[in-house]
Amino acid sequence: MSKVATSGTWTGISVTPPNLAGLTTDNVTWGIPAGGGKSGYVFSGKTTEVALDGTEFTLGTFIHQNFPIQAMPQSQFEVDLAVRIVFEDDVARDFSFRFRHNETPNVGPNPEDEVDLPTTVSPETVTIDGTEYSVVITGFKQGGQIVTKFISPENGANSGDIVAVLARTGVPDVAITNVRYKGEVKRTQADEYVEIVNRGTAPADISGWVLGADDPGQDFTFPPGTVLQPGQRIRIYTNEDHPQWGGFKYGSARPLWNDKGDAAKLRDTGGKLVSEYRYGSAVKP
To answer: Which residues pair with 48 in a beta bridge?
Structure first.
């Protein structure tokens, strides 16, 4: 575990919107105001602890200034961010990422703007103790939840932390990161889920891998063609359909995960334990 400091600037945009300002700074804005201000992005760096074992850390805070603006010539475009990380030995490295923006109409059934990440792995690397690492963004953290898409209501500023890992270059790293073991759906707890993320820098084919609660009849086998891209986060629900999280479910009419505590285990096609996540009373002190 080491301490690093991050900072960032917005370096480019795939279109030239009206009133574009702030490129090469940490606050880029665009658009002709139709109310209180322009739209734009802010990146706020921080000092944080970073480990080399796949532990997620906060790369910085992302702020989306989503004020009503006049219709844009092009509603979907990409904005580039360069993040400088200064390590404890004063070695500084720049890592680049791309954000995809959807400037939706200010009125209608879905007026919220959307931001996602078409690429999650930095093309730049850093060598630590002879091993090459890249930065992988694994999502946006809002209200304690890590999400894959950033959605902002109109007429305000919406913020969240950008969550990332420092991962070995060229290899996948699949891990269970969360178990929601107490659902809110009465009796069936159909909304329970296990969350899995590829924290690595290469795709991971998990076809035939088995997720289990270590009890008979509580195994889920991933179907053929299941590939997790770098930074991709999926959920396996007890009995709900959520396509935005991969669309995986056990299809069980009863709860699967012990409300007091237990362990979720992920095994590869050879039965090797890839990841184990203990929760509730099963968490080791």
So the answer is: 4
Question: Would you say 156 and 134 are in contact if contact means Cβ atoms under 8 Å apart?
Answer: no
R_g of the chain, CA atoms, integer Å: 21
Q: Can you say whether residue 11 is alpha, beta or left, with left for phi > 0 and alpha for psi between -120 and 50 degrees?
A: alpha
Quote the CA–CA distance of 147 and 231 in Å, as a whole number: 11
CA distance 26 to 40: 10
| Record: fold of 174-280 | Immunoglobulin-like (2.60.40)
Average pLDDT score over the chain: 93
List pLDDT tens digits, range 33-56: 987 789 999 999 999 999 999 999
Residue pLDDT, tens place only, 223-250: 999 999 999 999 999 999 999 999 999 9
Q: Position 6: which residue type?
A: T
Strand-pair category, 261-267 with 131-142:
unpaired
The structure tokens listed for 256 are 């699967």
Contact call for residues 83 and 45 (beta carbons, < 8 A): yes
Instruction: Domain ranges for the chain, please list them.
Output: 2-168, 174-280
